[in-house]
Amino acid sequence: MSYVKVGSLQVDQQLLHFINNEVLPGTGVETGEFWEGFSKIVAELTPKNQVLLEKRDELQRKIDQWHKDHSFQSDQYKAFLKEVGYIEPDGEDFQVTTENVDEEIALQAGPQLVVPVNNARYAINAANARWGSLYDALYGTDAISEEDGAEKKGNYNPVRGERVIAFARDFLDNAAPLEGNSHKEAAKYAITDGELVITLKDGSETKLKNKEQLQGFRGQTDAPSAVLLKNNGLHFEIQIDQHHPIGKTDAAGVKDILMEAALSTIMDCEDSVTAVDAEDKVLVYRNWLGLAKGDLSTSFEKNGKSMTRQMNEDRCYTAVDGSTFKLPGRSLMFVRNVGHLMTINAVLDENGNEVFEGILDGIVTSAIAKHSICGNAKLINSRKGSIYIVKPKMHGSEEVAFACELFDRIEDLLDLERNTLKIGVMDEERRTSLNLRNCIRASKDRIAFINTGFLDRTGDEIHTSMEAGPVICKGDIKSSVWLSAYEKSNVAEGLAVGLQNHAQIGKGMWAMPDMMAAMLEQKISHVKAGANTAWVPSPTAAVLHALHYHQVNVKQVQDEVKQTKQDYTDDILQIPLEKNPSWSKEEIQREIDNNAQGILGYVVRWVEQGIGCSKVPDINNIGLMEDRATLRISSQHIANWLRHGICTEEQVMETMKRMALVVDKQNEGDASYRPMAPNYEESVAFQAACDLVFKGCEQPNGYTEPILHQRRLEAKEKYSVTQ
Ligand SMILES: CC(=O)SCCNC(=O)CCNC(=O)[C@H](O)C(C)(C)COP(=O)(O)OP(=O)(O)OC[C@H]1O[C@@H](n2cnc3c(N)ncnc32)[C@H](O)[C@@H]1OP(=O)(O)O
Ligand SMILES: O=CC(=O)O
Ligand SMILES: [Mg+2]
Question: What does the record give as the active site (predicted)?
Answer without folding.
Answer: 336 (proton acceptor), 627 (proton donor)
